[in-house]
Design a protein that fits this description.
single chain, about 300 residues, four-stranded antiparallel beta sheet, four-stranded mixed beta sheet
Length: about 300
């Protein structure tokens, strides 16, 4: 009996060990038996297997450098490979896949790669309860995040370079799903700036989810402060070197949100609170897609 696709997916780590020729033969056999998922061509599946191998190896190296010790990096789920293919189709060249191990950070945690920690104010908000008690915990799982550099402030006219979401944002403004009050009139219609957190959740995230073929409420959001900070330390120190801000996922006080990343007041360490219905010409966002961990 030929294995069902889900069983094959479960056994991907063992399949990797077969070697290129046998993997190709297996994928060809799956195609003949009509067992490939409709989203993937044989070439796509072969590519996703290679991508998965590369991701596991690169994430192992990155976390070993950050933590100073080895950690277990599981095989990414097939849904991540499908979403990365979708990202390529829409021109989201800055999409990056990464793995988070579960880590409960404390202010005095000491890891070799954690050179820029969130500022004192952030930890104080966790202590007082205005930010969630588990805000500084990384939850285990794979993610896709936009690796773009946030731009330097230019009176609201700044744009994220090579932004694949410009047509979507233009359409949402045209439909009135992103409001344009008087103080946002000079912001380009295709810009990530001048978008409230409420509009992100109500319109932008669901539209991005539709582009990528994932679940809007479960998977698409912006990064938490600890995710933004750790990824900045691991891969993108430049995120803290421009004077614009970005929305963060963490709730602050009564339904408001955190923002961070401004270079004028701390860069990767900088965190502040902001009303979730505010639209500002200095405040943008970066999409993040969450994938549940898969145990073999």
């Amino acid at each position: 009996m030929v294995m069902e696709y889900r069983e094959i997916e479960r056994r991907l780590p063992q399949i990797y060990k077969l070697g290129g020729g046998l993997v190709t033969a297996l994928v060809n056999a799956l195609e003949m038996q009509n067992l490939l998922p409709h989203q993937l061509s044989p070439l796509d599946l072969k590519g996703s297997i290679v991508l998965s191998e590369q991701l596991v190896a690169s994430e192992n190296r990155a976390w070993r450098s950050f933590l100073g010790k080895d950690t277990i990096v599981p095989t990414p789920p097939q849904e991540l490979s499908v979403a990365m293919l979708k990202a390529k189709e829409i021109g989201w060249t800055q999409a990056e896949a990464h793995f988070f191990p579960k880590i409960e950070f404390e202010q005095d945690s000491n890891f070799p790669g954690w050179t820029v920690k969130p500022e004192e104010w952030y930890w104080q908000q966790i202590k007082t309860g205005t930010v969630a008690k588990d805000a500084a915990t990384l939850e285990e799982g794979w993610i896709i995040i936009d690796g773009s550099q946030k731009p330097q402030y230019k009176d609201g006219k700044q744009m994220y370079e090579n932004d694949p979401f410009t047509l979507l944002l233009t359409q949402l403004r045209k439909e009135g799903k992103i409001q344009v009050p008087d103080w946002c009139r000079d912001i380009p219609k295709a810009s990530r700036f001048g978008v409230s957190d409420d509009e992100l959740r109500g319109s932008v995230n669901p539209a991005n989810a539709n582009l990528l073929g994932v679940q809007p409420e479960e998977q698409v959001r912006v990064p938490k402060e600890i995710e933004f900070n750790v990824l900045g330390n691991l891969y993108h120190p430049e995120w803290g070197k421009t004077n614009t801000w970005e929305w963060l996922e963490d709730k602050f006080e009564d339904g408001n949100r955190l923002i961070g990343g401004n270079s004028d007041s701390g860069g990767l360490a900088r965190v502040n609170g902001h009303a979730s219905d505010n639209r500002d010409n200095f405040l943008g966002f970066r999409p993040l897609v969450v994938f549940s961990p898969r145990r073999i």
